[in-house]
């Protein structure tokens, strides 16, 4: 079941990327990707963290999804060991990423004018809505970034908590399923996020 | 005239036909009435079933006050036994119990059906082990088709010889009732009789029942008398072995040698009532003590292995009885209780009365059945579900706690426990090692056969293990054992000067001893003689030099441990994962003794070699558990930071929304 869902999910993600590539012109640029950032140590560190997260994600995705998608069985053997070795590194990198990039990927009023208008309409606010179209930048990256950070919590906790003698077999299975499906959504979002970044 | 005559004949014939028809109808009605009355008289039993084959629903014990019946010269039903009979014959359980219970049906039950090739062998179980220190022999035997065991006839053992060796720890029947095909044994079989099913072995609840007598009588060749000798109201003296082949126990004549006593039975005077009936304290619920006679295990963990030092199975301690799980109907198709037994057994409760069946309930049951017999439903907190895919319940819960080395283990059947004159030494043969955590089906077993025999294939379970040691002939990489009588004569003679330890342990066989024995066998048997021992096959090359190589035929025979079940608080993993996942954990890295009389063949193997797991992976994985606590701390710490960041920016977002709502933007 999970194998089929995963394959479909990845195909849909790829299809979305292809469609986006075809129909949406590339005119965005990465915030903070300025010359000053590239020169400063902090800026370099930020990029390094991003790359580390990406590398860890690749390793975890391959070791996690390869047995499921290709072999049709659960992760086992040396793959588990590689997966478990990179997992804590990934968790640390994600935490650092969240701290270093959260401000950069903050939503601004220009990101979601429609939402702003809805809020004003719903609350019958008097002040006129400023036309913010065209001011938004990197909305896709921002959404995917915050989704990554948000999904990291159930992704990590579902597997770490199962290592404590807290949950019985039924909950263990539930936690494992939660880890699998969260990992799937996480992977889709991460692929999209990487695509958006590469695109800009 | 002729016409009239024809008409008369015709009329007479018609009348005759009508009369014949009426007569037939009358006979049919009468027969039906007789059958009907017979059934009524017998308590309206189901047709084809005897009185005791089917319960009327009462849970009370039926009283067995019944006449004793002997067998006749042809093995058929003899007369009822009167205490004044001369000669006084032993009662036959076939005919005494068989009056109300279908003996033929019972004889197909698990305890008696090993000889029937049509009955599924199921999961490999404990074999009979033929051991002889003098010839360096220790070989697992079974009539069942369990891979790794040998058929008795492969070693030249007739069914009668097999029973003489191992009948002591059987409830009779099976091989004990086979007609001998050996001409020399036919007359002897008439003198001894057959070893029929001894119902009392299991069902006699009388404390005075002495199963040890079964061993004594079999040793004396008193097969016909063996069952009666075990009961509380009869005693048997004399020996059929001492009688000539022409001796007739039904018309006995005093033996020529006055010192030799013919097999004789005496019944206690008080046993018979005024109608010459005898009371049997028969119970359907077999007492545990009866099971223990054949199914005791002695794990030689410490010097002091007295019973008071060790605990019983947790189920028995909780008040259950063996038969609460190991149930059967009149067909005696008893539940063995292993995972997947339902695929091999016709007992409809096979799935329900496994570990999982009681503690979790059957998956396919329409009503809730978990907690049967008060079984607690385990939570297994913190145990990753993969453990239940890779291990049996017994892996964590049964047998002795694994130590750095496997321990020698004695069983009733292998070491004749509970009979007189037992060698109580720890090293007494055969050498059984346990617990060996091995993949189900043992090693060296064909995967297809394993899949046929086990549902739980691929799971790791604790096992008992015996390394076969025997003399054989090798042909095209197949080793067949040499007739044991030839081995005794040839090898026994060659090794006659090798000193045998008083403990009953192996003699120390050097390479020279093996070379000499192989040379002597070469002159006696056809083909290339080899010695199989400790996982190796020893053979001579053309120059007479001894060669040793690992061989599939020398693989150990393993059978799963089911009992004793330890309480949950003593199960593997109860302390931490490192009970098993540590670089020195016995579960993976314990030493398994390689047992052999050949001094150069002795040694150890690591447990992981029996688990179809890459040893370096197992070690690396175990090593990773050193960092497990650190990994948990780091991951939880990272989660905390991420959560704080999320909370911070969620609050910021909320502040923005509040600003928008306040109209300050």
Number of distinct helices of chain A: 7
- Low-pLDDT stretches of chain B are 35-45, 442-456
- What is the residue-averaged pLDDT of chain B? 87
Tell me the radius of gyration of chain A. 19 Å
How much helix, percentage-wise, in residues of chain A? over 70%
Greatest interface by residues involved: A-B, 46 and 40 residues
The main β sheet of chain B shows up as: 5 strands, antiparallel
Instruction: State the distance separating the first and last CA atoms of chain A.
Output: 36 Å
The geometry of chain B reads as globular
Distance between the termini of chain B: 141 Å
Give the overall average pLDDT of chain A.
82
Can you characterise this structure?
By secondary structure, chain A is mostly helical. Chain A has a domain at 34-104. Chain A is built from seven helices and no strands. Chain A starts with a helix and ends with a helix. The model of chain A is unreliable at 32-37 and 129-135 (pLDDT under 50). Chain B has 665 residues and is α+β, with helices and mostly antiparallel strands. Among the domains of chain B are: 2-44; 64-122 and 158-280, no CATH class; 470-554, no CATH class; 631-665. Chain B is 30% helix and 14% strand. Chain B contains 21 helices and 20 strands. In chain B, strands 9-10-11-12-18 form a five-stranded antiparallel β-sheet. A five-stranded antiparallel β-sheet of chain B has the order 14-13-15-16-17, with helices on one face. Chain B has a two-stranded antiparallel ribbon with strand order 1-8. In chain B, strand 19 and strand 20 form a beta hairpin. In chain B, helix 17 (484-494) packs across helix 18. The N and C termini of chain B lie far apart (141 Å). The interface between A and B is large, with 46 and 40 residues.
């Amino acid at each position: 079941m999970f194998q089929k869902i995963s394959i479909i999910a990845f195909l849909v993600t790829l299809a979305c990327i292809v469609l986006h590539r075809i129909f949406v012109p590339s005119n965005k640029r990465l915030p903070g990707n300025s010359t000053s950032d590239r020169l400063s140590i902090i800026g370099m560190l930020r990029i390094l963290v991003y790359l580390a997260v990406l590398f860890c994600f690749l390793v975890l995705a391959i070791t996690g999804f390869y047995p499921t998608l290709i072999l049709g069985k659960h992760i086992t053997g040396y793959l588990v060991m590689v997966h478990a070795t990179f997992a804590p590194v990934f968790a640390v990198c994600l935490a650092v990423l969240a701290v270093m990039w959260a401000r950069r990927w903050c939503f601004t009023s220009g990101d979601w004018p429609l939402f702003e208008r809805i809020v004003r309409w719903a609350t019958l606010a008097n002040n006129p809505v400023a036309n913010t179209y065209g001011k938004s930048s990197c909305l896709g990256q921002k959404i995917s970034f915050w989704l990554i950070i948000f999904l990291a919590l159930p992704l990590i906790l579902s597997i770490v908590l199962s290592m404590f003698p807290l949950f019985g077999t039924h909950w263990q299975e539930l936690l494992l399923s939660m880890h699998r499906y969260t990992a799937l959504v996480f992977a889709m979002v991460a692929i999209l996020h990487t695509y958006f970044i590469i695109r800009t | 005239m002729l016409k009239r005559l024809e008409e008369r004949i015709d009329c007479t014939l018609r009348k005759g036909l009508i009369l014949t028809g009426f007569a037939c109808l009358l006979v049919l009605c009468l027969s039906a009435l007789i059958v009907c009355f017979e059934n009524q008289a017998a308590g309206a039993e189901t047709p084809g079933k005897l009185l005791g084959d089917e319960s009327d629903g009462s849970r009370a014990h039926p009283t067995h006050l019944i006449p004793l019946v002997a067998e006749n010269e042809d093995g058929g039903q003899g007369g009822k036994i009167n205490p004044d009979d001369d000669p006084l014959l032993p009662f036959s359980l076939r005919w005494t119990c068989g009056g109300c219970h279908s003996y033929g049906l019972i004889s197909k039950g698990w305890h008696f059906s090993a000889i029937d090739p049509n009955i599924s062998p199921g999961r490999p179980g404990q074999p009979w082990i033929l051991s002889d220190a003098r010839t360096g022999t220790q070989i697992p035997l079974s009539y069942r088709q369990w891979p790794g065991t040998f058929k008795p006839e492969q070693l030249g053992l007739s069914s009668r010889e097999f029973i003489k060796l191992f009948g002591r720890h059987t409830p009779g029947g099976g091989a004990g009732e086979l007609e001998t095909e050996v001409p020399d044994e036919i007359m002897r079989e008439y003198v001894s009789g057959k070893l029929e099913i001894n119902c009392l072995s299991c069902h006699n609840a009388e404390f005075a029942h002495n199963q040890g007598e079964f061993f004594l009588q079999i040793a004396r060749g008193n097969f016909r008398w063996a069952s009666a000798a075990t009961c509380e109201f009869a005693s048997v003296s004399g020996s059929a072995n001492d009688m000539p082949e022409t001796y007739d126990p039904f018309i006995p004549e005093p033996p020529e040698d006055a010192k030799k006593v013919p097999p004789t039975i005496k019944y206690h005077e008080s046993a018979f009532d005024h109608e010459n009936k005898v009371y049997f304290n028969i119970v359907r619920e077999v007492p545990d003590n009866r099971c223990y006679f054949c199914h005791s295990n002695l794990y030689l963990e410490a010097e002091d292995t007295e019973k008071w030092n060790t605990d019983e199975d947790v189920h028995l301690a909780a008040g259950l009885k063996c038969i609460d799980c190991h149930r059967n109907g009149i067909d005696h198709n008893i539940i063995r209780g292993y995972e997947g037994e339902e695929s091999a057994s016709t007992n409809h409760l096979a799935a329900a009365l496994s570990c999982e069946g009681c503690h979790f309930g059957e998956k396919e049951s329409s009503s809730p059945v978990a907690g049967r017999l008060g079984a607690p439903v385990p939570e297994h907190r913190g145990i990753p579900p993969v453990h239940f895919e890779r291990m049996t319940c017994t892996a964590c819960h049964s047998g002795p706690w694994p130590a750095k080395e496997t321990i020698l283990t004695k069983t009733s059947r292998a070491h004749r426990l509970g009979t007189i004159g037992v060698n109580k030494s720890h090293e007494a043969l055969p050498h059984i090692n346990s617990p060996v955590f091995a993949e189900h089906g043992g090693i060296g077993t064909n995967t297809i056969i394993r899949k046929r025999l086990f549902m739980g294939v691929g799971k790791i379970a604790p096992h008992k293990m015996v390394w076969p040691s025997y003399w054989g002939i090798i042909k095209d990489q197949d080793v067949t054992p040499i007739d044991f009588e030839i081995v005794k004569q040839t090898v026994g003679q060659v090794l006659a000067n090798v000193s045998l330890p008083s403990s009953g342990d192996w003699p120390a066989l050097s390479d020279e001893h093996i070379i000499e024995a192989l040379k002597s066998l070469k002159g006696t048997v056809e083909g290339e003689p080899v010695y199989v021992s400790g996982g190796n096959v020893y053979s001579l090359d053309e120059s007479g030099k001894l060669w040793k190589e690992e061989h599939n035929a020398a693989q150990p025979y393993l059978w799963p441990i089911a009992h004793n079940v330890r309480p949950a608080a003593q199960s593997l993993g109860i302390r931490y994962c490192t009970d098993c996942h540590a670089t020195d954990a016995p579960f993976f890295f314990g030493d398994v003794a390689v047992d052999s009389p050949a001094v150069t063949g002795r040694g150890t193997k690591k447990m992981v070699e029996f688990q179809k797991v890459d040893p370096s992976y197992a070690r690396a994985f175990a090593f990773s558990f050193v960092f497990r606590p650190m990994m948990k701390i780091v991951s939880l710490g990272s989660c905390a930071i991420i959560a704080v960041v999320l909370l911070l920016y969620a609050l910021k977002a909320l502040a923005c929304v509040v600003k928008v709502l306040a109209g300050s933007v």
